[in-house]
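Dig into these lines:

——
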Amino acid sequence: MENARPSIMTALFRDPDSAERAYGALTRRGYGSDEVSLLMSEETHKRHFRDKEVARPDFETKAAEGAGAGAVAGGGLGALLAALAASGIAIPGMPMIAMGTLAAALTGAGTGGALGALIGGLIGHGIPEEHARLYDRGIRQGGIVMGVNPRSSEDARYLEREWANCAAEQIYCPPFRGSDAA
């Protein structure tokens, strides 16, 4: 069935600052943290955060300066990543952390044991193999994959533009499926 699963838009960000700016684009468009998916290696999470609950001070400062009013109140990507301790999951057998709908797609994939199982989980969630392979490599190299289910084709176009301006790589934006009242 074509509308059984919403189309997820994904992109790879090579550094936390780029991911933070991209998350700011989401919040400015009215998306909440519960609508965002994140994938990163445990090493990336450890490198950019002191522990699973506290973001680096310089990361939080940049979020407050650059991501808009929501970030000042603790709504930036730093706050979202801090929530990984509560709502994110470590994928069994895979050295990674996942949050959101992509986490659910990967829970079964992790039983294979290798980070390469990420590719199968992403493909199973509707992401083309070419993108899945590049995301796998990007995560291994310290990148962050972010995803969201756009509410409208207008949102998808806006996010694609904004994420490109945030140095996103490998933006996957499937054709919008759903009622598009906008």
Observations:
- Residues 9-172 form one domain.
- The mean pLDDT is 72.
- The chain has one domain: 9-172.
- Strands lie at 9-13, 36-41, 89-90, 96-99, 144-148, 169-172.
